[in-house]
Amino acid sequence: MSDSQKLAERSNFLIENGRFMTLATQDPEGAWASTVNYVPLREPLRLLWYSLRRARHSQNIHARPMVSGSIFMTGLPGFGLDGAQFTGTASPVTGEDLEEVAEFYYQRNFPDEQTRQEWRLPLTEFEGEGDRRFYFVEIRSWWLLDIDQWLVDMNDQRIAVPLAPLARA
Predict the structure, then answer these.
(1) CA atoms within a 13 Å half-sphere pointing along the CA-CB vector of 8
(2) Rounded to a whole number, what is the distance in angstroms from the first to the last CA of the chain?
(3) SS3 131
(4) What pTM did the predictor assign?
(5) Which 3 state secondary structure label does DSSP give 12?
(6) Would you write out the chain's pLDDT as a tens digit for each of its 169 residues?
(7) Strand partners, 35
């Protein structure tokens, strides 16, 4: 397996299994980081979550949609941890896509039907004057922890990963 295939495989594992990302936004007072529960979508690579409209990160997205973030996992075989960082453009889900996106989010996040019904919020929460919104971040760039280099010199560095193999996984 080539190095680029290994990087794509590691990236796709994080995307599919990470479940939580730290999302960084910015407002006039400075940077803000929030942890949100996401599900991945592909073609193009996007991460989907929902938040309260009044949350600071949601307000920041409406004013400045450029975001960055990270996904980090521990307890993994081998090195024991892995992580990725990304940049992208975030936007609320609106209109005709809302019902389909909500259904996908709940099915993916809660595979068990009973659990899904316990967690599902009415669609009215996400439209009009509802308190919440679904958001996407469309990934523009992606980096992984450079584990191979860490094992050589213990320098904490990142390595860029092309998006094409991540968008189609």
Answers:
(1) 14
(2) 16
(3) coil
(4) 0.93
(5) helix
(6) 678 888 899 899 999 999 999 999 999 999 999 999 999 999 999 999 999 999 999 999 999 999 999 999 878 787 877 799 999 999 999 889 999 999 999 999 999 999 999 999 999 999 999 999 999 999 999 999 876 666 667 677 789 999 998 987 6
(7) 22
Helices (H), 18-55: none
Q: Which two tokens stand for residue 127?
A: 């439209």
Q: Residue 159 contacts by C-beta under 8 Å, 6 or more apart in sequence?
A: 7, 143, 144, 145, 146, 149
The single-letter code of the amino acid at 142 is: W
Polymer length in residues for the chain: 169
Which has the closest alpha carbon to 15: 150, 166, 168? 166
Read off the tokens for 56: 């600071």
Amino acid, single-letter form, for residue 59: Q
